Amino acid sequence: MAKLSSLVQHIEAFVDVSRPANQQTVSIDAVASLLKNDLLTIETLVKEMEMYLTTTDNIIRARGILLLGEVLTCLTENPLGNATVHSLIRFFTDRLADWQALHGALLGCLALLRRKSDAGMVTGSDARALAESYVKNLQVQSLGQHDRQMCFELLECLLSGYPNDVASLGDVLVYGICEAIDGEKDPRCLMVTFHLVEILAQVFPDPSGPLAHYAADSFEILSSYFPVHFTHPKSDDLYVKRDDLSKALMLAFSSTPFYEPFAIPLLLEKLSSSLPSAKVDSLKYLSSCASKYGVDRMEKHSREIWLALKDTIFTLSSENVLSVVSESPDAMGFQENEVVKEGLICLHHIILQNSNLFINLIVEDEDVEVIFRSVTSCRSYNDITVEDRKKLYMLGRILSVSAQVSSSSCSRIFQTFFLRLMDILGVPLDGSFLLSEKLNSGALYLCIELLAACKNLVLDSQEYASKSFSLEDTCCSLLRNVSAALTDALSSILVLRMDQGVSEDIYSGVKGLQYLATFPGFLPISKPLFENILAIFMSIITSGNERALLWKLSLKALVQIGTFIEKYHDSEKGLGYMNIVIEKFIELICTDDSVMSFRLKLEAITDIGSTGKDFMLRITQGMEEAISTNFYEACIKENLKAVEILLPLLECYSSKVLPWFQNTGDFEKVVLNFAINIWNQIENILTVSTCFQKKDLLDATMMAMSLAVGMCSEENQAMIVQKAYNVLSLVTSLPLNESLPLSAPINVEGLEHSQYLYSFSSVDEWLISLFASVIMAVRPQTEIPNVKLILKLFVSVLLRGLVPAAQALGSMINKLPVKLNSTEGSSTCTLEEAMDIIFEANLWSLSVNDPLRKCNIMDRNKVGITNLFLNIYENVTVPTQAIVGLAWIGKGLLMRGHEKVKEITMLFLRCLLSSGKIRIFPVQQDSLGDCNGPDIDPFVMRSAADAFHVLLGDSEVCLNRRCHATIRPLYKQHFFSIMMPILLSSVAESDSSTSRHFLYRAFAHVISGSPVIAVLAEAKKLIAVILDALSTLSVDVMDKDLIYSLILTLSAILTDENERDAVTENAHIIIDRLIGLTSYSHKMLVRETAIQCLTALCGLPYVRIYPMRTQVLRAILKALDDPKRIVRQEAVRCRQAWESISSRSLQF
């Protein structure tokens, strides 16, 4: 009883129109939930609602029927008995005559019609009865938009779900549908109505059926919408686009051949419209209709269609004719507007349907013949008029499209035009070609278009060696006869034009040779001919005139040929390509007897190699051979020329070869061999020489090594690390022997006077740096031998300024495990053990000038970084090299989210405060005390400030995803939220100008490295400090990049709507600071951004900015004379914006 009482309450709540809409929605959900959970049956619901469904009160009856329809909509997947479905659909069918309750009735009918068979469906007889009631009772166009849309969706369900049952209604149904859709204007409804017509054609395909009888009437309704003219505003959220509507109408047009007598004349008529969109739609519809109506119906329109297409293509081609010559290798040709493009597509579909008929119309057309004679009568391209150039291009496109339809159409076009073109060009059908000084450019262009069409026809077919392409075909026979002479002709053109720099015939010559070389193997392009074409291109490439258009086109042609070989797996041509092109390029990079620059050779060879895996593998082998040879020359014989070769080789390997393999996959063996070979080379060199001098060569080698190692699996990385460690162990001056105690800290005082620390050779730097590049790139799980010894080695060399060692140390700290697994050997260590080794080293106790201070007597279990440094400060300053090392260690800790980074950050802050107190971490207050000490050297303070850039900056060398770093989500935001209050309080309490300067520098690094969203969240607190930092740092030219980063952050705050109040409050001081930066002479981007910020400030309240108007305009007046054009442009915009304030003042 409680459930029934609740049900009645929900029914009454919905029926009551005075209730709010959300309460009515809750009622629907509640009733549907009872039914879904089997707490209520649909029969019980109907029984309880009987009064509401049958009452004479129109409003209550309409609400009751609507509730039932809404509930059924929620139950489309819940099973219902056949009898229940029958009763419900009969009820709603009868209700279609009740116009006051029509909305609910339509909703209920749709809910029942959309049910699946396993949930209980409407029967065919009930569907037929529903259709009869629909036709009899509904005047669709008199209804509102939503009800009309449901009416059309109801018809859609009936026609698609019950086609045989409703088809028995015949003429009545078709007439009723035509009457329903006539005059519809709403785009959402039209999408359904157009689909209705499409389905209707499937239901009534009989030529003597009702749709054929009403074809004229129904098409008259459809034709009123063509072409689609969409007038709804963009803001109207209809989810219907013009293109979607036009496509739906096109499917309706082409849905039945019964529309052919009406559609084709209409489309041909609309081709003469002045609206380009109407022409494009006409061509699209014509293509669709022609393919659907059939050959027999379309044959009678063939001549009219051809004449209309010919007129469209030749008349409406672009007025801006492009020269065939351009710096871009793809630039030959003309600009096609959309109408012409669609016309050519339509021509292809028309010919495809009845090729013999339309090919005859084309080749026998008098206009085509006149144009052909005209464009081939001029020898030089320059002699062809602009109008004839347009016709030349369009004729070439028409012939190309025609030839690409089928083998028979290609043969007919070749037989009609290709033979004549060969005769005009002087190319004999057999025999050799004699070079003529005056070539016919128009004939050459048409010849190349036909070659391309023939090649594309063959390659576009699924099996280009099928029976549809016979060697006896006219096109194949002609190509077989003229291929050799045509190749001679095209190569002669290139020879003739080579010294002329730019020529219109160059493009045609290169493309023609490329097309001949990329014909499939079964066609009559012989192996010697193919290899001859490759040799021609290679001779052009080796000439070294890379600035010439011919050189660029030849390289592109070779790339296209290589791509063709790889795509179609042509092994015979692949062998010739390897021998003639790839091997020649390898020879070029291994020798120095070419006029080509070495970097140009590498650019060309990597473009060629990228066409296929086998080609790139061979090129990689050749490059590694060149690297090995030149490594020996550079390090043993100190050959500077070898260094000049090595640098671009390694850069090319890093920037092009390795990324290519990574993108294509299956690269493990390649990169492993490269890395191992580099270490083998170094190992061999160490036995005879210790000459490693070039820093740029080291950098290039490190980058290539890091990329290669990063791409390897853990197993292969371990092999590389072990090999590198073995080579490193060969150097006796490095402390990598097992006798070095791991538990004892490195004695800095002893190292100071040792020969090792102050005789750090170039070999040591090379080996440690290269070894560091390996360590930076390994995965966290990769096994590293003697981790503790390696840690001590890196710590030991920090004071020599070896940054790669610091970066590798940070990478190790970032990746070492917190705990060791039982499977891991004793050679590794945990993160805490590594930190103990670093802390015990005490290398930071070194001073640049002062003697060492022993700090090893401190208990390592009780001493933290901060305590250690506070003791050091009493006598010495911290070396900048140690700070750099600590910065990278801190970055590794920060990225993995380790709390110990706080202690390192405290040290940097202590360096920035030459005297004073740090009240940051309460737990450390006792150990810090007052921390009063002597002033710190400014170089040390600068290093401490720049350490924050290391902490938050993104590194391309290490500690990134490519190097498999451990990265805690939102670690930058977390660091920002902790550090920013500390920095702000430190700046406020600092009483030293030097200290304040470097605090601002650290602040700028933190702001620049943090995500903008984090900065915006604290914008109110930061605006004043940012402005002070801009003022302080603008004095020193060394801080210009920081100034730019700060002003970018400020611009983000100024343009954020949420910070408008804070910006308004500080408007005067912001404008003052920006005015000063408009004349910042050290960086153009600062001036540009400052002016852009001033422009943005014009949107602030009038009373806040008007008093500053004169000062701003005065500053902008000076900016109008800025030496940089982009600054002057921004100044003009800014002046216009601020001058407009005057007009605002009048309105105010």
TrEMBL record:
- SUPFAM superfamilies registered for this protein in UniProt: ARM repeat
The UniProt keywords, alphabetically, are: DNA damage, DNA repair, Nucleus, Repeat
Tell me which residues make up the MMS19 C-terminal domain.
616-1097
DNA damage is among the record's keywords: yes
Which is a Gene Ontology cellular component entry for this protein? Answer: nucleus
At the top level of its lineage, which domain of life is listed?
A: Eukaryota
Query: Is the keyword DNA repair assigned to this protein?
Result: yes
The places in or outside the cell where this protein is found are: Nucleus
**InterPro entries per the record?**
ARM-like, ARM-type_fold, MMS19, MMS19_C, MMS19_N
Location of the MMS19 N-terminal domain:
46-314
Q: Pfam families given for it? A: MMS19_C (PF12460), MMS19_N (PF14500)
Biological processes, Gene Ontology terms: DNA repair; iron-sulfur cluster assembly; protein maturation
Question: What is the protein's known function?
Answer: Key component of the cytosolic iron-sulfur protein assembly (CIA) complex, a multiprotein complex that mediates the incorporation of iron-sulfur cluster into apoproteins specifically involved in DNA metabolism and genomic integrity. In the CIA complex, MMS19 acts as an adapter between early-acting CIA components and a subset of cellular target iron-sulfur proteins.
The family note in this entry says: Belongs to the MET18/MMS19 family.
Q: What is this protein called?
A: MMS19 nucleotide excision repair protein
Q: Which organism is it from?
A: Protea cynaroides
